[in-house]
UniProtKB/TrEMBL annotation:
It comes from the Eukaryota. This is Vinculin-binding site-containing domain-containing protein. One of its GO terms (molecular function) is integrin binding. Signal peptide: none annotated. One of its GO terms (cellular component) is cytoplasm. One of its GO terms (biological process) is cell-cell adhesion.
Length: 143
């Protein structure tokens, strides 16, 4: 699952890079779209590097949980960038939906406590993946 998420991150970054490239085509170097292109290229490099680290971590059983947490942290950072952008969301959420999203955060927190107590790699990975989805859903609903 961690590997698939890393691949999804690379695919999303590639899509963003292609969009930024299209937007920056034939623009002067000081155009804001060029800065977006630069940012998209940095994210792409970061995600490819992350994918390579993930592949390596999958090989090393002892670091799988750590790598899953690192990947989740990186994904949340990227989602925060989207959240803070001026881009208009595709859909709107009602206040009730936003409140309902807190349930995912609560579940992820409970799983994190349980994973900390069990110290099992599988529990840490499951918690990282659940947290990733819960935070992304919450940010999307809030935006």
């Amino acid at each position: 699952v961690v590997l698939i998420n890393a691949i999804k991150d690379v695919a999303k970054a590639l899509s963003d890079l292609i969009g930024a490239t299209k937007g920056a085509a034939s623009k002067p170097a000081d155009d804001p779209s060029m800065y977006q292109l630069k940012g998209a290229a940095k994210v792409m490099v970061t995600n490819v590097t992350s994918l390579l680290k993930t592949v390596k971590a999958v090989e090393d059983e002892a670091t799988r949980g750590t790598r899953a947490l690192e990947a989740t942290i990186e994904y949340i950072k990227q989602e925060l960038t989207v959240f803070q952008s001026n881009e208009v969301p595709e859909k709107t959420s009602s206040p009730e939906e936003s409140i309902r999203m807190t349930k995912g955060i609560t579940m992820a927190t409970a799983k994190a406590v349980a994973a900390g107590n069990s110290c099992r790699q599988e529990d840490v990975i499951a918690t990282a993946n659940l947290s990733r989805k819960a935070v992304a859903d919450m940010l999307t609903a809030c935006k």
